[in-house]
Known about the structure:
By secondary structure, this protein is an all-alpha fold.
Amino acid sequence: MQTKNPMEFFRNLPSKQCPECGDVVHEQAESYLMECDRCLAKKED
């Protein structure tokens, strides 16, 4: 079964969650980060 509208497919994808804390990761275009900004900041300290 094929989706008629490709945009509908992307709208139905679940939000990406941070594997460290479980918060939703707010992605930007061309971003492949897995962790949220807060967890990334903790790693830099």
